[in-house]
Amino acid sequence: MFHSESAFTSLSKDTTLAVTTGDSSSNLIAEGMGTVNLLRNNQILKLPNSLFVPKLNCNLISLLKIFYKELIINQDDDSFTLTAEGKEILQGKTENNLMKVDYHLPTANKVITKESPWHERLGHAGRSVIKSMGLPPSNDSCKICTLNKIHQLPFKDNFEHADLPLDCVHVDLVGPISPPSISGFWYFLTIIDQATSYKIVHLLKNKLDTFSHFTIIKKMMETQQDRSVKKLMSNQGREFLNSYFKQLANECRFVHVFSPEYTPEHNGFAKRAN
Q1: Which residues are CB-neighbours of 204 under 8 A, at least 6 positions away?
Q2: Does residue 137 sit within a domain?
Q3: Statement: the pTM of the whole predicted model exceeds 0.70
């Protein structure tokens, strides 16, 4: 029985059982079973079916479990030697009628780890890759993998299409573009009438000029069509979602509709025009 998980070269935690020692008052639980290799004089003694008991004060080795066909115990004062099949396997000292084995664990022990860190380190590798590494399986789900496997449903165009000019006008701002134009313009404003698909593009040097350019284009369109804009559709960019556009909508009595975030399909007329 061993109290350190690092002592095991292989360990299965499927086994759980109660352990009884000389101290009857202690309730010890073995939380796994595996193989431990002991190194002595450059020779390895393999101890299969060893129990992992975390609350054990010291490691215990049963002679009954390591009996060979021929096991010889040589004792000299306070020291002893165990020989099996003509080879010395263990030695140590006797103290309080107990044999204290002199050994150490090999440095090339198997690292006991969980699946999740290696799953992330290997670029979110699949379960088959993790299994081939000999790591214990885990039922924990990876949030990143789950999110990346989500598929967005196809967008269905259920808008009520405008029949007359200026019944619905779409607007969008693009930029900053790099490099800028020869004249120093960094942005362009696209306005498209849904009914006629008529497009107007204005170049802007500053994002703050969006409102002033829109009002100019709006007046021009309303003058030519002898009609007023009834609905304006845009995204929720700060160049559109502000007090200036809100006041203009109240004064001119048109509806300003904003597309939801991260759904450019709702303002598809302007996006396709870009």
Answers
A1: 173, 175, 185, 186, 187, 188, 189, 210, 213
A2: no
A3: no
